[in-house]
């Protein structure tokens, strides 16, 4: 892994999201309440785009499909496939829980850098 400059910091104000490419990876950058996070663009469950995933007040991103939720800082699973009720849990049992990949970021020289 190595640091890559991906975006001017002023292009990602609070509440904004951007997808950037680092090597072969598509990374979702988001600014949640002034804190910048870099996570995999696709859900580790069934590869659905997380771009429109809901962000909760406690720093969790929720997949729009089966609503698995992941800690934005660590990528750890908070809940695995709770939706739709009953069926979601059955679907989730078919594949083991996997964290959402997260990547270190830094802001230097007016730019956002990702270590991916
Ligand atoms: S695709 Fe994200 S939880 Fe199923």
TrEMBL record:
Gene Ontology MF, one: monooxygenase activity
Pfam families: Rieske
Chain ranges of the Rieske domain: 3-114
InterPro entries associated with the record: Rieske_2Fe-2S, Rieske_2Fe-2S_sf
UniProt keyword terms in alphabetical order: 2Fe-2S, Iron, Iron-sulfur, Metal-binding
Name of protein: Rieske (2Fe-2S) domain protein
Organism: Rippkaea orientalis (strain PCC 8801 / RF-1)
Lineage of producing organism: Bacteria, Bacillati, Cyanobacteriota, Cyanophyceae, Oscillatoriophycideae
